[in-house]
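Ticket #4471: structure export looks truncated?
Reporter: QA, pipeline team
Priority: medium

Steps to reproduce: submit the single chain below to the structure queue and open the exported record.
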Amino acid sequence: MTDEFERMGNDPGAWRTSAEALVYNADVLKKHRYQQHEQEITASNASVDVSRTFGELLLWGYSLEAFLKCLFLKEGGEMARDGKLVDPGKHDLLQMARKAHLQPTSAQCSILKRLSIIIQWSGRYPIATTPQKTFQSHHWGHPEDDDVLEELIEAIRLKIDAP
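Actual output as written to the record:
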């Protein structure tokens, strides 16, 4: 059982498959967000930001995490060892990008930092573990941030697919 766990955990293709599935589902929500924006409809019990983006942004963040783990493995890293998952970044996407030898632009670094906050806590909980972390900026701009995110995902895909 441990051998199979380590084989799957260290298989870049398994991480890529997860990443692409998350992208597909995030894109469904993105299309819905743009459709809702055109109709000016919001959830009655949530702010505009939360009702339109946090579920989607969680999926984008998780997809980037899986893509970066795929790239980390392709670059010679190891995700599973001795029957345990070895996390190269503890949900810190910028740290993971660096460990995967990705060189993001400053705009991409901003996306990675904000999506890290969203996947670590703000997409799920009302506060972080400390007041300092709770009040970090993590808002999403449309369509600029969407464009940078798409460019980042495509850059990661190209690097994964490179010989």
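Status: closed, not a bug. The export was complete when the record was re-opened. Leaving a note from the reviewer for reference: The longest strand covers residues 80-81.
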